[in-house]
Amino acid sequence: MTTKYIFVTGGVVSSVGKGVTAAAIGLILKERGYKVAVQKLDPYINVDPGTMSPYQHGEVYVLDDGAETDLDLGHYERFIDIRLNRVCNITTGQVYAEVIAKERRGDYLGGTIQVIPHITNEIKRRINLVSKSTSAEIVIVEVGGTVGDIESLPFLEALRQLRSDLGRENTVNVHVTWLPYIGATDEIKTKPTQHSVAELRSIGIAPDMIVARSDHPVAENLREKIAQFCDVEKRAVIPMVTSPILYEIPLLLEKEKVGEYLLHRLNLDSKQQPDMSDWEKLVSETAREKPRVSVALVGKYVELHDAYMSVREALKHAALSLGLELDLRWVHSADLEKAKHVNALEDAHGIIVPGGFGSRGIEGKIWAANYARVNLIPYFGLCLGMQLMCVEFGRYALGSDQVNSAEFDLSTPHPVIDLMPDQQNIKDVGGTMRLGLYPCILQPGTIAANAYGVKKVEERHRHRFEFNNAYRERMAQHGMVFSGLSPDKSLVEIVELKDHPFMLGTQFHPEFLSRPTRPHPLFLAFLRAAAVKAGVAYRDPPLLYKR
Protein backbone atom coordinates (compact mmCIF):
# COMPACT_ATOMS: atom_id res chain seq x y z
CA MET A 1 0.00 0.00 0.00
CA THR A 2 0.98 3.63 -0.44
CA THR A 3 2.60 4.98 2.72
CA LYS A 4 0.32 7.31 4.63
CA TYR A 5 1.56 10.28 6.67
CA ILE A 6 0.23 12.11 9.72
CA PHE A 7 1.94 15.45 10.40
CA VAL A 8 1.74 16.71 14.00
CA THR A 9 2.38 20.38 14.75
CA GLY A 10 1.99 22.43 17.91
CA GLY A 11 0.71 25.88 18.69
CA VAL A 12 0.18 28.52 21.37
CA VAL A 13 2.90 27.29 23.76
CA SER A 14 5.76 24.82 23.80
CA SER A 15 5.60 21.55 25.74
CA VAL A 16 1.93 21.24 24.82
CA GLY A 17 2.13 17.45 24.55
CA LYS A 18 2.77 16.81 20.86
CA GLY A 19 5.10 13.91 21.60
CA VAL A 20 2.65 12.05 23.81
CA THR A 21 -0.18 12.80 21.36
CA ALA A 22 1.84 11.43 18.44
CA ALA A 23 2.76 8.35 20.47
CA ALA A 24 -0.85 7.75 21.51
CA ILE A 25 -2.05 8.11 17.91
CA GLY A 26 0.58 5.58 16.89
CA LEU A 27 -0.72 3.11 19.47
CA ILE A 28 -4.38 3.34 18.45
CA LEU A 29 -3.44 2.91 14.77
CA LYS A 30 -1.23 -0.07 15.59
CA GLU A 31 -4.16 -1.58 17.47
CA ARG A 32 -6.10 -1.34 14.20
CA GLY A 33 -3.56 -3.57 12.50
CA TYR A 34 -1.18 -1.07 10.88
CA LYS A 35 2.58 -1.00 11.09
CA VAL A 36 3.47 2.43 12.45
CA ALA A 37 6.66 4.46 12.78
CA VAL A 38 7.17 7.94 14.21
CA GLN A 39 9.70 10.61 13.33
CA LYS A 40 10.67 13.77 15.24
CA LEU A 41 11.86 16.90 13.40
CA ASP A 42 13.96 18.99 15.80
CA PRO A 43 14.71 22.58 14.72
CA TYR A 44 17.92 23.10 16.72
CA ILE A 45 21.24 23.36 14.83
CA ASN A 46 23.01 20.74 16.98
CA VAL A 47 23.56 17.56 14.98
CA ASP A 48 21.97 15.61 17.84
CA PRO A 49 21.31 16.19 21.56
CA GLY A 50 24.29 14.09 22.62
CA THR A 51 26.41 17.07 23.71
CA MET A 52 23.53 19.15 25.10
CA SER A 53 22.99 19.71 28.81
CA PRO A 54 19.89 18.03 30.28
CA TYR A 55 18.94 21.50 31.51
CA GLN A 56 18.66 22.49 27.84
CA HIS A 57 17.13 19.35 26.42
CA GLY A 58 16.14 16.83 29.08
CA GLU A 59 17.04 13.18 28.65
CA VAL A 60 19.08 11.92 25.72
CA TYR A 61 17.30 8.81 24.48
CA VAL A 62 19.45 6.14 22.78
CA LEU A 63 18.22 3.77 20.06
CA ASP A 64 19.38 0.28 19.05
CA ASP A 65 21.62 1.66 16.30
CA GLY A 66 23.34 4.08 18.67
CA ALA A 67 21.51 7.24 17.65
CA GLU A 68 21.30 9.85 20.42
CA THR A 69 17.84 11.32 20.07
CA ASP A 70 15.11 13.48 21.55
CA LEU A 71 13.25 12.15 24.58
CA ASP A 72 10.01 12.08 22.55
CA LEU A 73 11.37 8.97 20.82
CA GLY A 74 11.11 7.33 24.22
CA HIS A 75 7.40 8.15 24.27
CA TYR A 76 7.02 6.69 20.77
CA GLU A 77 8.78 3.43 21.61
CA ARG A 78 7.11 2.98 25.00
CA PHE A 79 3.55 3.67 23.85
CA ILE A 80 3.65 1.81 20.54
CA ASP A 81 6.13 -0.89 21.65
CA ILE A 82 8.36 -0.50 18.60
CA ARG A 83 12.08 -0.17 17.89
CA LEU A 84 12.98 2.96 15.93
CA ASN A 85 16.23 3.90 14.18
CA ARG A 86 18.34 6.99 13.56
CA VAL A 87 16.31 8.26 10.60
CA CYS A 88 13.44 8.78 13.04
CA ASN A 89 15.05 11.91 14.49
CA ILE A 90 16.02 14.74 12.14
CA THR A 91 17.69 17.93 13.29
CA THR A 92 18.37 21.15 11.42
CA GLY A 93 22.06 20.49 12.07
CA GLN A 94 21.91 17.13 10.27
CA VAL A 95 20.06 18.61 7.31
CA TYR A 96 22.41 21.56 6.79
CA ALA A 97 25.52 19.41 7.36
CA GLU A 98 24.41 17.04 4.59
CA VAL A 99 23.54 19.82 2.14
CA ILE A 100 26.81 21.66 2.79
CA ALA A 101 28.79 18.41 2.39
CA LYS A 102 27.11 17.84 -0.98
CA GLU A 103 27.89 21.38 -2.05
CA ARG A 104 31.56 20.93 -1.12
CA ARG A 105 31.69 17.74 -3.20
CA GLY A 106 30.26 19.59 -6.19
CA ASP A 107 27.01 17.61 -6.23
CA TYR A 108 24.97 20.68 -7.15
CA LEU A 109 27.03 21.47 -10.28
CA GLY A 110 27.85 25.00 -9.28
CA GLY A 111 24.28 26.04 -8.49
CA THR A 112 23.24 28.48 -5.78
CA ILE A 113 22.21 26.57 -2.66
CA GLN A 114 18.95 27.80 -1.15
CA VAL A 115 16.52 26.82 1.58
CA ILE A 116 14.02 26.07 -1.17
CA PRO A 117 14.55 23.65 -2.82
CA HIS A 118 17.79 22.24 -1.41
CA ILE A 119 17.09 22.25 2.33
CA THR A 120 13.44 21.29 1.94
CA ASN A 121 14.36 18.50 -0.50
CA GLU A 122 16.83 17.06 2.02
CA ILE A 123 14.14 17.16 4.72
CA LYS A 124 11.68 15.37 2.43
CA ARG A 125 14.33 12.77 1.53
CA ARG A 126 14.89 12.01 5.20
CA ILE A 127 11.15 11.78 5.88
CA ASN A 128 10.82 9.27 3.02
CA LEU A 129 13.59 7.15 4.55
CA VAL A 130 11.41 6.24 7.53
CA SER A 131 9.01 4.02 5.62
CA LYS A 132 11.89 2.45 3.68
CA SER A 133 13.89 1.59 6.80
CA THR A 134 10.97 0.47 8.97
CA SER A 135 8.43 -0.81 6.38
CA ALA A 136 5.85 1.34 8.15
CA GLU A 137 2.47 1.68 6.50
CA ILE A 138 1.70 4.86 8.43
CA VAL A 139 4.41 7.35 9.38
CA ILE A 140 3.68 9.97 12.03
CA VAL A 141 5.92 13.05 11.76
CA GLU A 142 6.11 15.44 14.72
CA VAL A 143 7.54 18.93 14.23
CA GLY A 144 9.37 20.21 17.29
CA GLY A 145 8.79 23.70 18.60
CA THR A 146 5.76 25.92 18.09
CA VAL A 147 4.18 27.27 14.91
CA GLY A 148 5.60 30.74 14.40
CA ASP A 149 9.14 29.80 15.45
CA ILE A 150 11.56 30.87 12.72
CA GLU A 151 13.64 27.72 13.25
CA SER A 152 10.75 25.44 12.25
CA LEU A 153 9.84 27.16 8.97
CA PRO A 154 11.93 24.90 6.66
CA PHE A 155 10.34 21.80 8.22
CA LEU A 156 6.84 23.21 7.84
CA GLU A 157 7.52 24.20 4.25
CA ALA A 158 8.72 20.64 3.54
CA LEU A 159 5.49 19.26 5.01
CA ARG A 160 3.47 21.67 2.88
CA GLN A 161 5.27 20.41 -0.20
CA LEU A 162 4.84 16.78 0.82
CA ARG A 163 1.08 17.14 1.00
CA SER A 164 1.14 18.33 -2.61
CA ASP A 165 3.62 15.59 -3.61
CA LEU A 166 1.76 12.75 -1.92
CA GLY A 167 -1.85 13.88 -2.33
CA ARG A 168 -4.37 14.96 0.29
CA GLU A 169 -5.74 11.42 0.53
CA ASN A 170 -2.37 10.24 1.84
CA THR A 171 -1.71 12.92 4.46
CA VAL A 172 -3.41 14.30 7.57
CA ASN A 173 -2.41 17.42 9.48
CA VAL A 174 -2.95 17.25 13.25
CA HIS A 175 -2.46 20.48 15.20
CA VAL A 176 -2.04 20.31 19.00
CA THR A 177 -2.87 23.56 20.80
CA TRP A 178 -3.41 24.91 24.30
CA LEU A 179 -6.63 26.46 25.63
CA PRO A 180 -5.64 28.88 28.42
CA TYR A 181 -7.91 29.39 31.40
CA ILE A 182 -8.50 32.90 32.76
CA GLY A 183 -9.26 32.58 36.47
CA ALA A 184 -10.56 36.12 36.90
CA THR A 185 -13.42 35.50 34.47
CA ASP A 186 -13.65 31.72 34.84
CA GLU A 187 -13.24 31.29 31.08
CA ILE A 188 -11.37 29.00 28.71
CA LYS A 189 -10.14 31.09 25.77
CA THR A 190 -10.02 29.81 22.19
CA LYS A 191 -8.48 32.91 20.62
CA PRO A 192 -4.83 31.70 20.96
CA THR A 193 -5.81 28.51 19.13
CA GLN A 194 -7.44 30.57 16.38
CA HIS A 195 -4.30 32.67 16.01
CA SER A 196 -2.12 29.55 15.97
CA VAL A 197 -4.22 28.00 13.20
CA ALA A 198 -4.14 31.30 11.26
CA GLU A 199 -0.34 31.28 11.51
CA LEU A 200 -0.25 27.69 10.26
CA ARG A 201 -2.54 28.58 7.35
CA SER A 202 -0.31 31.52 6.42
CA ILE A 203 2.46 28.97 5.86
CA GLY A 204 0.17 26.98 3.59
CA ILE A 205 -0.86 24.18 5.98
CA ALA A 206 -4.49 23.69 6.93
CA PRO A 207 -5.14 21.43 9.93
CA ASP A 208 -7.48 18.47 9.48
CA MET A 209 -7.71 17.80 13.20
CA ILE A 210 -7.17 19.98 16.26
CA VAL A 211 -6.27 18.42 19.61
CA ALA A 212 -7.21 21.12 22.12
CA ARG A 213 -5.29 20.68 25.39
CA SER A 214 -6.77 22.15 28.54
CA ASP A 215 -6.53 21.89 32.31
CA HIS A 216 -10.32 22.26 32.51
CA PRO A 217 -13.26 20.48 30.84
CA VAL A 218 -14.02 21.86 27.38
CA ALA A 219 -17.69 22.67 26.84
CA GLU A 220 -19.47 21.60 23.66
CA ASN A 221 -19.98 25.21 22.55
CA LEU A 222 -16.21 25.78 22.67
CA ARG A 223 -15.66 22.72 20.52
CA GLU A 224 -18.16 24.11 18.00
CA LYS A 225 -16.47 27.51 18.13
CA ILE A 226 -13.05 26.07 17.39
CA ALA A 227 -14.48 24.04 14.51
CA GLN A 228 -16.15 27.10 13.01
CA PHE A 229 -13.30 29.58 13.36
CA CYS A 230 -10.57 27.11 12.41
CA ASP A 231 -12.51 25.51 9.53
CA VAL A 232 -12.34 21.89 10.68
CA GLU A 233 -15.07 19.33 11.22
CA LYS A 234 -16.58 19.40 14.68
CA ARG A 235 -15.75 15.72 15.18
CA ALA A 236 -12.14 16.60 14.34
CA VAL A 237 -11.87 18.97 17.30
CA ILE A 238 -10.60 16.73 20.09
CA PRO A 239 -10.78 18.18 23.62
CA MET A 240 -7.90 16.78 25.65
CA VAL A 241 -8.18 17.56 29.36
CA THR A 242 -4.91 17.12 31.23
CA SER A 243 -4.78 13.69 32.84
CA PRO A 244 -2.72 12.88 35.94
CA ILE A 245 -2.13 9.46 34.38
CA LEU A 246 0.09 9.65 31.30
CA TYR A 247 -1.01 6.28 29.98
CA GLU A 248 -4.64 7.34 29.93
CA ILE A 249 -4.04 9.54 26.86
CA PRO A 250 -4.50 6.72 24.29
CA LEU A 251 -7.79 5.77 25.97
CA LEU A 252 -9.02 9.38 25.82
CA LEU A 253 -8.18 9.59 22.11
CA GLU A 254 -9.85 6.23 21.53
CA LYS A 255 -12.98 7.47 23.29
CA GLU A 256 -13.05 10.46 20.92
CA LYS A 257 -12.82 8.04 17.95
CA VAL A 258 -9.58 9.60 16.75
CA GLY A 259 -8.43 6.33 15.17
CA GLU A 260 -11.62 6.00 13.14
CA TYR A 261 -11.42 9.58 11.91
CA LEU A 262 -7.76 9.36 10.90
CA LEU A 263 -8.29 6.14 8.96
CA HIS A 264 -11.32 7.70 7.28
CA ARG A 265 -9.24 10.72 6.22
CA LEU A 266 -6.54 8.40 4.89
CA ASN A 267 -9.04 6.22 2.98
CA LEU A 268 -8.19 3.20 5.10
CA ASP A 269 -10.22 0.60 6.96
CA SER A 270 -9.35 -1.05 10.26
CA LYS A 271 -7.63 -4.39 9.73
CA GLN A 272 -8.68 -5.60 13.18
CA GLN A 273 -10.72 -4.60 16.18
CA PRO A 274 -8.60 -2.51 18.56
CA ASP A 275 -7.96 -4.07 21.95
CA MET A 276 -7.08 -1.49 24.60
CA SER A 277 -7.72 -3.80 27.55
CA ASP A 278 -4.04 -3.83 28.66
CA TRP A 279 -4.05 -0.06 28.81
CA GLU A 280 -7.37 0.00 30.62
CA LYS A 281 -5.89 -2.36 33.23
CA LEU A 282 -2.82 -0.13 33.46
CA VAL A 283 -4.89 2.98 34.17
CA SER A 284 -7.13 1.09 36.60
CA GLU A 285 -4.08 -0.21 38.45
CA THR A 286 -2.64 3.30 38.64
CA ALA A 287 -5.76 4.59 40.36
CA ARG A 288 -6.03 1.65 42.79
CA GLU A 289 -4.75 2.01 46.34
CA LYS A 290 -1.62 -0.13 46.73
CA PRO A 291 1.17 -0.86 49.21
CA ARG A 292 3.74 1.94 49.10
CA VAL A 293 7.44 1.53 48.39
CA SER A 294 9.80 4.50 48.59
CA VAL A 295 12.73 4.81 46.18
CA ALA A 296 15.35 7.57 46.37
CA LEU A 297 16.67 8.64 42.96
CA VAL A 298 20.06 10.25 43.51
CA GLY A 299 21.18 12.47 40.63
CA LYS A 300 22.64 15.85 39.69
CA TYR A 301 19.65 17.07 37.62
CA VAL A 302 16.81 16.05 39.94
CA GLU A 303 15.17 19.48 39.78
CA LEU A 304 14.51 18.67 36.10
CA HIS A 305 12.59 15.39 36.14
CA ASP A 306 12.71 15.10 32.34
CA ALA A 307 16.46 14.45 32.64
CA TYR A 308 15.58 11.01 34.03
CA MET A 309 12.32 10.40 32.18
CA SER A 310 13.01 6.82 31.06
CA VAL A 311 14.24 5.83 34.53
CA ARG A 312 11.13 7.31 36.14
CA GLU A 313 8.83 5.55 33.67
CA ALA A 314 10.65 2.21 34.00
CA LEU A 315 10.19 2.39 37.78
CA LYS A 316 6.49 3.13 37.26
CA HIS A 317 6.11 0.20 34.85
CA ALA A 318 7.65 -2.20 37.34
CA ALA A 319 5.69 -0.84 40.30
CA LEU A 320 2.36 -1.15 38.50
CA SER A 321 3.16 -4.68 37.38
CA LEU A 322 4.04 -5.68 40.96
CA GLY A 323 0.95 -4.00 42.41
CA LEU A 324 2.97 -1.36 44.28
CA GLU A 325 2.59 2.38 44.76
CA LEU A 326 5.88 4.08 43.87
CA ASP A 327 6.95 6.87 46.20
CA LEU A 328 9.79 8.38 44.14
CA ARG A 329 12.00 10.81 46.04
CA TRP A 330 14.34 13.10 44.12
CA VAL A 331 17.62 13.55 45.99
CA HIS A 332 20.30 15.93 44.72
CA SER A 333 23.70 14.26 44.92
CA ALA A 334 25.41 17.60 45.63
CA ASP A 335 23.27 17.94 48.75
CA LEU A 336 24.50 14.57 50.00
CA GLU A 337 28.08 15.83 49.61
CA LYS A 338 27.20 18.70 51.94
CA ALA A 339 25.42 16.31 54.38
CA LYS A 340 22.10 17.90 53.45
CA HIS A 341 18.91 15.84 53.06
CA VAL A 342 20.69 12.70 54.25
CA ASN A 343 17.44 11.77 55.95
CA ALA A 344 15.94 11.31 52.48
CA LEU A 345 17.78 8.00 52.35
CA GLU A 346 17.07 6.87 55.90
CA ASP A 347 13.57 5.57 55.25
CA ALA A 348 14.07 4.72 51.57
CA HIS A 349 13.36 1.10 50.65
CA GLY A 350 15.56 1.34 47.58
CA ILE A 351 18.18 3.66 46.07
CA ILE A 352 18.73 4.16 42.35
CA VAL A 353 21.62 6.13 40.84
CA PRO A 354 21.11 6.82 37.12
CA GLY A 355 23.62 7.71 34.43
CA GLY A 356 25.25 11.07 33.91
CA PHE A 357 28.44 12.96 33.14
CA GLY A 358 30.62 15.49 34.94
CA SER A 359 32.15 15.64 38.40
CA ARG A 360 29.49 17.67 40.21
CA GLY A 361 27.82 15.59 42.92
CA ILE A 362 29.96 12.49 42.32
CA GLU A 363 31.00 12.02 45.95
CA GLY A 364 27.33 12.34 46.94
CA LYS A 365 26.48 9.43 44.65
CA ILE A 366 29.38 7.42 46.09
CA TRP A 367 28.08 8.20 49.56
CA ALA A 368 24.63 6.91 48.52
CA ALA A 369 26.21 3.66 47.27
CA ASN A 370 28.07 3.29 50.57
CA TYR A 371 24.89 3.91 52.54
CA ALA A 372 23.05 1.26 50.53
CA ARG A 373 25.86 -1.29 50.92
CA VAL A 374 26.38 -0.83 54.65
CA ASN A 375 22.68 -0.68 55.53
CA LEU A 376 21.63 -3.49 53.16
CA ILE A 377 19.26 -1.26 51.20
CA PRO A 378 18.47 -2.41 47.63
CA TYR A 379 20.63 -0.41 45.22
CA PHE A 380 20.38 -0.16 41.43
CA GLY A 381 23.15 1.65 39.55
CA LEU A 382 22.74 2.57 35.87
CA CYS A 383 25.86 3.30 33.78
CA LEU A 384 27.58 5.95 35.93
CA GLY A 385 25.60 4.57 38.90
CA MET A 386 27.24 1.19 38.29
CA GLN A 387 30.70 2.75 37.94
CA LEU A 388 30.38 4.68 41.20
CA MET A 389 29.12 1.54 42.94
CA CYS A 390 32.43 -0.03 41.86
CA VAL A 391 34.40 3.00 43.09
CA GLU A 392 32.70 2.81 46.49
CA PHE A 393 33.25 -0.93 46.78
CA GLY A 394 36.84 -0.51 45.60
CA ARG A 395 37.54 1.92 48.44
CA TYR A 396 36.24 -0.70 50.86
CA ALA A 397 37.96 -3.69 49.23
CA LEU A 398 41.34 -1.99 48.65
CA GLY A 399 41.28 -0.01 51.87
CA SER A 400 42.00 3.31 50.18
CA ASP A 401 39.92 6.46 49.75
CA GLN A 402 42.01 7.27 46.66
CA VAL A 403 40.15 4.68 44.58
CA ASN A 404 38.31 6.53 41.85
CA SER A 405 37.30 6.70 38.21
CA ALA A 406 39.84 8.13 35.77
CA GLU A 407 36.99 10.29 34.48
CA PHE A 408 37.12 12.33 37.68
CA ASP A 409 40.69 11.86 38.90
CA LEU A 410 43.43 11.23 36.33
CA SER A 411 46.03 10.89 39.06
CA THR A 412 44.23 8.21 41.08
CA PRO A 413 46.51 5.27 41.94
CA HIS A 414 43.51 2.94 41.68
CA PRO A 415 41.43 3.70 38.55
CA VAL A 416 38.87 0.93 38.99
CA ILE A 417 36.96 2.69 36.20
CA ASP A 418 39.04 3.73 33.22
CA LEU A 419 38.69 5.03 29.67
CA MET A 420 37.94 2.26 27.18
CA PRO A 421 40.93 1.48 24.91
CA ASP A 422 39.03 2.36 21.72
CA GLN A 423 38.18 5.78 23.20
CA GLN A 424 41.81 6.79 23.85
CA ASN A 425 42.47 8.83 20.70
CA ILE A 426 39.01 10.19 20.01
CA LYS A 427 38.92 13.98 19.58
CA ASP A 428 35.27 14.76 18.76
CA VAL A 429 32.83 14.42 21.64
CA GLY A 430 29.59 14.12 19.66
CA GLY A 431 28.41 10.64 18.66
CA THR A 432 31.72 8.96 19.52
CA MET A 433 30.87 7.01 22.68
CA ARG A 434 30.07 3.29 22.82
CA LEU A 435 26.50 3.70 21.72
CA GLY A 436 23.59 1.41 20.99
CA LEU A 437 22.73 -2.26 21.33
CA TYR A 438 25.41 -4.72 22.49
CA PRO A 439 25.13 -8.32 23.73
CA CYS A 440 25.70 -9.42 27.32
CA ILE A 441 26.25 -12.99 28.55
CA LEU A 442 24.76 -13.66 31.99
CA GLN A 443 26.50 -15.81 34.58
CA PRO A 444 24.29 -18.65 35.91
CA GLY A 445 22.89 -18.39 39.41
CA THR A 446 23.31 -14.63 39.69
CA ILE A 447 20.63 -12.08 40.51
CA ALA A 448 20.84 -10.77 36.95
CA ALA A 449 20.47 -14.20 35.33
CA ASN A 450 17.54 -15.09 37.57
CA ALA A 451 15.85 -11.76 36.78
CA TYR A 452 16.12 -12.13 33.01
CA GLY A 453 15.49 -15.86 32.82
CA VAL A 454 17.75 -16.19 29.75
CA LYS A 455 21.47 -16.65 29.12
CA LYS A 456 22.06 -13.79 26.71
CA VAL A 457 20.56 -10.31 26.51
CA GLU A 458 21.04 -7.22 24.36
CA GLU A 459 20.90 -3.76 25.92
CA ARG A 460 21.51 -0.15 24.90
CA HIS A 461 24.71 1.63 25.95
CA ARG A 462 26.05 5.18 26.19
CA HIS A 463 29.51 5.42 27.78
CA ARG A 464 33.25 5.98 27.31
CA PHE A 465 34.49 4.53 30.59
CA GLU A 466 34.42 0.91 31.68
CA PHE A 467 35.37 -1.28 34.63
CA ASN A 468 39.15 -1.74 34.74
CA ASN A 469 39.83 -5.47 34.34
CA ALA A 470 43.05 -5.18 36.35
CA TYR A 471 40.84 -5.04 39.45
CA ARG A 472 38.50 -7.92 38.70
CA GLU A 473 40.30 -10.51 40.82
CA ARG A 474 40.82 -8.30 43.88
CA MET A 475 37.23 -7.04 43.82
CA ALA A 476 35.90 -10.59 43.38
CA GLN A 477 37.88 -11.73 46.43
CA HIS A 478 35.90 -9.25 48.54
CA GLY A 479 32.48 -10.23 47.22
CA MET A 480 31.88 -8.49 43.92
CA VAL A 481 30.25 -10.70 41.29
CA PHE A 482 30.70 -9.94 37.60
CA SER A 483 27.36 -11.32 36.54
CA GLY A 484 27.22 -9.96 33.01
CA LEU A 485 30.07 -9.87 30.51
CA SER A 486 30.53 -9.13 26.82
CA PRO A 487 30.70 -12.31 24.70
CA ASP A 488 34.51 -12.14 24.59
CA LYS A 489 34.56 -11.48 28.37
CA SER A 490 36.60 -8.31 27.86
CA LEU A 491 33.97 -5.87 29.13
CA VAL A 492 32.08 -5.92 32.41
CA GLU A 493 28.39 -5.26 31.77
CA ILE A 494 26.77 -6.12 35.14
CA VAL A 495 28.14 -6.23 38.67
CA GLU A 496 26.45 -7.29 41.89
CA LEU A 497 27.46 -8.00 45.47
CA LYS A 498 27.34 -11.21 47.45
CA ASP A 499 25.59 -11.18 50.81
CA HIS A 500 23.42 -8.23 49.92
CA PRO A 501 19.66 -8.40 49.20
CA PHE A 502 20.10 -6.44 45.95
CA MET A 503 23.10 -4.35 45.05
CA LEU A 504 23.47 -4.41 41.30
CA GLY A 505 24.81 -2.11 38.62
CA THR A 506 24.64 -2.20 34.83
CA GLN A 507 26.98 -0.52 32.37
CA PHE A 508 24.05 -0.28 29.99
CA HIS A 509 20.75 1.59 30.25
CA PRO A 510 17.94 -0.94 30.83
CA GLU A 511 15.41 1.88 31.23
CA PHE A 512 15.36 2.40 27.44
CA LEU A 513 13.77 -1.00 26.84
CA SER A 514 11.10 -0.92 29.54
CA ARG A 515 7.48 -0.80 28.33
CA PRO A 516 4.25 0.05 30.22
CA THR A 517 2.80 -3.42 29.62
CA ARG A 518 6.20 -5.22 29.69
CA PRO A 519 8.44 -3.87 32.46
CA HIS A 520 12.17 -4.48 32.35
CA PRO A 521 13.26 -7.56 34.36
CA LEU A 522 15.96 -5.71 36.32
CA PHE A 523 13.57 -2.97 37.41
CA LEU A 524 11.14 -5.67 38.51
CA ALA A 525 13.88 -7.41 40.50
CA PHE A 526 14.95 -4.12 42.11
CA LEU A 527 11.43 -3.21 43.22
CA ARG A 528 10.79 -6.74 44.48
CA ALA A 529 13.80 -6.32 46.74
CA ALA A 530 12.55 -2.88 47.79
CA ALA A 531 9.13 -4.34 48.64
CA VAL A 532 10.80 -6.98 50.82
CA LYS A 533 12.75 -4.20 52.54
CA ALA A 534 9.48 -2.31 53.08
CA GLY A 535 7.78 -5.44 54.40
CA VAL A 536 4.87 -5.21 51.96
CA ALA A 537 3.30 -7.82 49.74
CA TYR A 538 3.59 -7.71 45.96
CA ARG A 539 2.27 -9.82 43.14
CA ASP A 540 4.64 -11.73 40.89
CA PRO A 541 3.90 -11.00 37.20
CA PRO A 542 5.02 -13.40 34.46
CA LEU A 543 8.45 -12.80 32.95
CA LEU A 544 7.96 -10.94 29.69
CA TYR A 545 11.55 -10.22 28.64
CA LYS A 546 11.82 -9.70 24.91
CA ARG A 547 15.06 -9.33 22.99
Secondary-structure blueprint of this entry?
Layout: E1 4-10, H1 18-30, E2 36-42, H2 54-57, E3 61-62, E4 68-69, H3 72-80, E5 89-91, H4 92-105, H5 115-134, E6 138-143, H6 153-166, E7 171-178, E8 181-182, E9 187-188, H7 191-203, E10 209-214, H8 220-230, E11 237-241, H9 249-255, H10 258-265, H11 277-287, E12 292-299, H12 309-322, E13 325-332, H13 333-337, H14 343-346, E14 350-353, H15 362-374, E15 379-382, H16 384-398, E16 403-405, E17 414-419, E18 434-442, H17 447-452, E19 456-463, E20 465-467, H18 472-477, E21 480-485, E22 492-497, E23 503-506, H19 521-534
Parallel strand pairs: 1-6, 1-7, 2-5, 2-6, 7-10, 10-11, 12-13, 12-14, 14-15, 15-23, 16-17
Antiparallel strand pairs: 3-4, 8-9, 17-20, 18-19, 18-21, 21-22, 22-23
Give a description of the structure:
It contains 19 helices and 23 strands. It has 547 residues and is of the alpha/beta class. It folds into 2 domains: 4-281, Rossmann fold (3-Layer(aba) Sandwich), CATH 3.40.50.300; 289-534, Rossmann fold (3-Layer(aba) Sandwich). Helix 12 links the parallel strand 12 and strand 13. It is globular, with a radius of gyration of 25 Å.
Quick synopsis:
With 547 residues, the protein is α/β, with parallel strands linked by helices.
- Tell me the CATH superfamily of the largest domain: P-loop containing nucleotide triphosphate hydrolases
Q: What overall geometry do the principal axes of the alpha carbons give? A: globular
What distance separates the N and C termini? Answer: 29 Å
Q: What is the average per-residue confidence, as pLDDT, rounded to a whole number?
A: 92
